[in-house]
Every structure is written in C-alpha cells, then in structure tokens.
Please model this.
Amino acid sequence: MADQKLSLTLSSSPHLRSSDTVANAMQDVLLALCPVTIVSIIFFKLHAVFLILVCLAAAALTELIFRKAMNKPSSLHDGSALVTGLLVALCFGPATAWWTAALCTFIAVGVAKELMGGLGWNRFNPALFGRVSVIMLIPIFTYLSSIFVRLRPALGAIDMVTQATPLALLKQGAGLPSLANLFVAFPGGALGETSALALILGGAYLLYKQHITWEIPGAMIIAVFVVALLFGQNPLYHVLSGGVLIGAFFMATDWVTSPITPQGKLIFGAAIGVLLVIFRVGLGPTEGTAFSILIMNAFVPYIDRMTKRPKFGEVAVGQSAVTAGQPVSKTS
Amino acid sequence: MTVKTFSRGVFLPHYKEFSENKSITAIPLPKEVVIPLHQHTGAPCRAVVKPGDEVKAGQRIGESDAFVTAFIHASVDGKVKAVEPRPYFTGTNVESVVIEVDAKQGETAWQERDVSKLNIDQIKDAIKNAGIVGMGGAAFPTHVKLSPPTAIDAFIVNACECEPFLTCDHRMMVEMTDALIAGARLIQKVVSAPRVIFGVETNKPDAIQALNAKIAGETGFQVVPLDVKYPQGSEKQLIKAVCDREVPPGKLPFDVGVVVQNVATCIAVYDACRYDKPLIERVLTVTGDAAARPQNILARIGTPISHIIEHCGGFKGEAGKVIMGGPMTGWAQTRLDIPIVKGTSGILLFSQAMVAETQHMACVRCGKCVDHCPMFLYPNYIGTYAETGRFDLAAEWGAMVCFECGVCVYVCPSNRPIVQFVREAKRQIAAARAAKN
Model:
C-alpha cells in the first residue's frame, strides 16, 4: 500500500454533484428560443438570418475581447453570451441596420454584463439593457448610420406588407389581425414577437426543464390582462402582441436579474405587467416591456429582502403534548 | 404504508448496491493502532497511560473531569509506544495514544449482566464509562444527550442512513436487531419516553421488516417508514418528519420533547450495559466505485485506514479520492495513516471519474439552493457574502444556522463551494463575537 503512488483530491464536502450546470441551462434556453427564431426566419428570410448572425457574432466577440482585456478566463462555453446575442436580435425588427444591432449587442454583453463583473454580477438584464440603449444613444446611432449606410448588404425588400405592430394598429384604430392569426404567427414588430404559440412552446419547455417557474410569467401575464381590462382595452391583444410573451418567458425570468423566492417572483412579475400596460397606454406602443422589466430589475434586492422567509423552526410548529419541552419537575 | 418526510432537501442517487447485501465481518487487527484522545464534541481527554505501559483491550487510557466529554479506551491488547500528536481526519494533529498490538490477544471475557435490573443511574454510568458518543458522525457524548433537562415524550432511533453509499446501519438493523431493540429500550428507560420510534428510509425494506417483526407486542414501539430524501437523517429534519415538530434555531431536540440516537449508538449502549463493554470497535462501510471489495466491516477504533483498505482489496483502478464518512458530509483524505474513530461510519474510495469539478463560477441566482435548503436559508446570499468578506451579511442570511448538509452545493449549477464559504463565515463571525465580548 505504502509504495502505491496516490494522487488524492482534497476538497470540501459534499463530494457529489448533480448534473445541472449553467452551460446546460443556457443550451436549453437557446433550444427554447428555436421555435420563434424559425418563425421569424420564415417571415423575414435573409433579413432575420443576417440580423441573428450579426448579434451572435457580436456577442461572442465582445465577451472574448472584454474577458481577455480584464485578464479573465474565457467563459464562452457557458453559452450566456450567445443567449444574450440571440435575445438582442429577437428584440429588433427585420429592417434594423446591422451596425445598430451589433452596437446594441456590444453594449449588452460588454457593458451590461462583463463590466458589471460578468455573469451573476449584473443587476440589469443584459439583452434589454442593450436593446434600450438604442433609444438613449440616438445621436450616436444617427452618426453611425451616416458612416455605415454604404455597408448595408442588399438582402432585397422585406416581403411582408405589415410593418406596424398590432399595438400601433390598435392605437390607430386600424384593421387588426385576428386573434387566431396573432396567436399562431403574425409578422408585426420584432423578430421575437412573430408567434405567440412559438414563445409559449419555448416557455413550456423551460418550465418542464425547471429552469424557470410559473410565478413570474404567470403574474406578469395576468397583470397585463387585468390592467388592460381596467383601461378598457382588449386584454388578449395586449397579451399576445408585442414583447409580453418573450418578456414573460425569456427576459423577466432571467435568473440573475429576478427575485429568488416564489412570493418575490409574484410581486416582480405582477409589477412588470402593471408598468407595461401603463407605459403602452400612456407613452406609446414600443419598448414598454423592456423598460418595465429593467425598472423592476433595480428593485430585485429589495424584493428579496422584503420577502425573506423565516428559517426552519422560527415559526413554532407542533409543540405537542403538555409535558413536551417543559422542565422536569423535581418529583419525577 | 404511509411514508413521511420533511420539506425541501434533495433526492440523491443511493449508491447502496455496492455493499447493502454484504454481511458484517470482523477484520484482522493491524500492527499498530492510533487512538486520538479527542474524537468527540466537548473537552479532550488526557492520557492516563505512558509509553511502555502494557494495556488490555477495554482499559481506560484517556479521561477528563469535564461533563461534556467521552472516555477513551484501548481497543487492543498491546504496549503503549507513544503519546503524541498524530494526524487526524479533519486535517489537524490530535494528541493520540499509539499502541503496538500484541501478536497474541487475550480472551476478553465480558461479564454478562441482566440489563432489566439496571436502574437509570446505573445505565447512565455504564454509558459514560464506555465512552459512548453519537456514532452517526457528530460524535456528541451520549450520556450528555441522555440527561435532558426537560420531559421527553418521544425517543427516535435515527435509522435513516440518508447518506448515499453507507450501509453499516442498514446491516446492523438486519443482523443485530435484538441488540438494537434492547439498546433502544435501555435509552427509553433513561429518558422516560413513552414512545420509541424507529425512523427508517424505505430503501431498507428488509430492515423495516426485521424491526416490525421484533417489536410486535412491545408497547410504545413503532417503525415509521421515511422517504429516501437527503438529509432525512439530520436530527431536526428527522424530528420534523416523524413528530411534525420544528426545533427552533439554536435549540436542541429536547426543547421539543424529543431525544434522537443513531442505530450504532443504541447497540453500543446495549453492549455497555449488558457486557460492561466500552466502545472499542465499530461497524463501518468500505465502499465506493474504486473499492475492489466493498463490504461492511467490524474494526477496532484506531485502526489506520490503510490497513482497512488493504484488507478490502485496495483500489480498483486509479484512486481519485478517499473520504472518511459519507459523500455529502465526509472528509477527503490525502494520507492513509489516519485512524478510524468512534464517529467514522464509512471509508469511500472514489475513482478519478467520481471526483467532482473544483472550479466554480459566480452565483447566477438560479434559486435552486434556496428551493432545496432544508433549513430554509439563503445559501446563495450566504455564499456570495462570505466569498466577498461581508460576514455580517452572511450571518443575516443564516450562516450560523447552517448545519453543512451540502444540498446547496449538490444542486448548484455554478458549482459553488457554499459549505466551504459557510465554514469560513462561521469562523469569522465567531471570532468577531469573541472580540466584542
């Protein structure tokens, strides 16, 4: 025994691990986003393919560059950059210029994630942060457009007539797509808003794989429905169109930027739903989902603290027989 | 059959198939035993023998005047070679009595007593003199645990054996059923408990059957089948499952009228009362995917693990990890001259393939640890705050209440060593509190 050469690993208990890894979860998220990605490609063809590839490449490159610059090991294998890249692409309409999408992805992965300390330390959903930066940085994007306009690839005209989102149509009182159309597939708005059914399929898969729980999407969708009703609008149009479903299943449920406890998740989801309809009704049809989720991201630490559960045994349970736990009397 | 359990926790692979059907066999004595003088919770013992002394198996070699302590006995006939610090399984050195084992061992004639004639004080004295501690791993002196300041209405025999791989309690329940029940009856008498409940996980149907057959006709005895969920064998979770009572943070089982003892401890109590035999040997499981001949063995306290591994056929393939105890709470070893002690329930031999990844990522707040934590804590926050040195916040989220079951680490997709963070937080918080006082 003594002459046997042993190289024994010394590590803290426990010595067993489940098979769950961040990389597996991210793979599942990518898989769950496939149905809506496919629908968007069917509708927008090369425009969608090109936009998605640009965002995926920009996301991977940005993460590589930032981690190299900060002297950290590469984390591409965990897949979170690709998820962010795909989500940014799905937040844009097919006519979006590639440099806009690329810069947004760069901000999403580089600024909103890596500069915050990397995956886990970011307080705001990176994809949405990148997406709304397009609004905050309009002058920069206008300038970029003047430079890059020649570099726009000729992908042909977008052969879908409808460019207005159902919500814009709703506001104008123009002819609306039928609910059935909207549910199955409707090419209005962003790539990720083309099919409620595809998003629900993806969300169901994430629920089935237990990567997300029902509380956030459930509370958010119910809140959108109820508040839309209160405003006297058709609640189904509100739920099925725009970013509600992709937001509910894929953005608001982001692990890093959502609350930990079930009660916290309910509060978080419901607040997003309420804000979202208020933004849509008050401010116009676009970006309501992005802003309401980002605003609620900021409240997550407070929601966690507010909903902190009691520890095991802190709430008295089952003090049974009269004698149990009482000091023994001298006579016994 | 109603199966009871507690909330949260996790379903682990069992890995019991390696050794669950292997009968207990005694292994030959080693050439030398190393008996640590502090292998229990409480005050260390001082040696009452010196190098050169001849000792007999069962002779007391370490004692202390403290209440919370457990006497230490020679586990073999032999000659004291040294009294000096020796490596201990937790990685530190502990003052130990090293005994050279005599080639010829005397026949130790244990005198038999009628245990039914013993009164409470005599039973307690027998337990104290035998140096019995909790043999599930915690090694808390049993005579202390059997002196509750409150009335007890239920005595629970912890027969869960919820750690994967380990099967020694299982085998003892099947092979030593009478001694187990007799031991339980003695403890019942000491704590005056009207009810005795055996909590057994349902993956040991033969043990449940054996117990049920033997307790038929005993009043107050009951077997409660429990779900195979980790950490079912943790005292607080066991009491919750069996009696539906929650022991508050910082309190002990007797605060809710319960006393818990493990299977091996009950049998040791019986041996101490029946034969006046000290705790000098124990049953443990030698197993793992790299164990050539997995089995349940009876070995003397102080036997080096190298001797045990050798007896069990050594390693199958390349060894990756040697663990003393179970895979969830046991201690990884880097040397094999470490002796087994009263609290050692198993020796696990893992192949390189079973060795868990040690690299970890930042917490991604997936919430799985919070979902599974049996103490309803927030391991995510405890881990992150301890890692970044904010120990007061780690305490606020429950670090001091954690009993290090390891469920959070098991489920963590970022592979975060949360138990290690918790231990560091406990050290720092205790040091800060001590500095304040």
About this structure: Residues 323 and 348 of chain B are 5 Å apart (CA to CA). The first helix of chain B runs from residue 120 to 129.
